[in-house]
Structures are given as structure tokens and as C-alpha cells.
Model the fold of this input.
Amino acid sequence: MSDTDMAACTQERLEDYLTRSGRELQRIAMQDYLDAAARREERRAVVRGADQVARRRAEPGHTRQLLTTVGPVEVSRIAYRASKAANLHPADAVLALPARLHSAPLQRAVVHEVADGPLRSAREALARATGQMLGTRQPSRPPAISATSTISAPGAPRNPRPQSGPRDATFWC
Done:
């Protein structure tokens, strides 16, 4: 907002502006953190997944999208490759990234909103709270269904190994 806009601004308009701008600032901070993590990622000589195939070829700069409560970000990491084997991305496990597009906090927000009422109302509430407009038709499982499959009953042991994604094999240290 320019100085003249600010001078004539109502409290309501200012608050709306700061909410939108603040969310973008948070998204930029998250993107900066992820970019720094990508620069710090060290190349490994060999990486093995659950399939025990040795992956010796490392290709930096493989990216994936991640939808978060503060907006979409891009995660860059090293892909470890071997012939006829799925790529492995150890940074996904280090960052505890979900196997799917939606971050864990966004999945939790969806679950809480969907549990309270119809999907359309949940979608509108999430848009108000996070600024993220989620589609009601998803080509893969909606985040509400994905998230509910990762929620454990109170006191149940948690699986320490990350879930494998549709294109990536499971990696754990």
C-alpha cells in the first residue's frame, strides 16, 4: 500500500491487507528455509531403499510442489537413481515431507474442517483461515482421506518410517 492509501485506510482494510501480506511473508520465509536446506544437502556416495538397490547416481535440483497452510512452495532436493529402480530423495525423509501434495498441517486443517460439516463449507473455512483454495475434485485421494489414514489412536505406536509415495521408494536411515 502506498502512503496515500495508508492515510485513507480503515482499520478493517488495513487488517485484511496485513493478513494477506503476512501470509505471503510466511510463505516466503518457508520457501527460503527450504531453499537453504537444499543448498546444505550433502551428496551421499550411495543410497539404498527398502528394495536394497544401490543408487549411486545423484542428480541435484529435483523439485516437487508442496501445498502448505501459508501457500504453495517448491522443495528442491537430490535424487538418487539406479537403472530400473525408483528415485530416492533422502531429504524428503529428513524434512518429514508427506508422500502427497498437501503438508501435514494443511491435512490436519482439512480433517478438522471436514469433521465439522459438509465439504463445501470446509473448503470455504480453509480458504478463510489459510488463504488456500482446495479443489473438491482431486485426481488422487483428497487430503482429508490421506490425513485420516495417518492419524493414530491415542496411545497407539507411531510408524517411524515415512510412507512411500507413488513415484518414490521408501527411504530411512
Remarks:
- Residues 11-40 form the longest helix (30 residues).
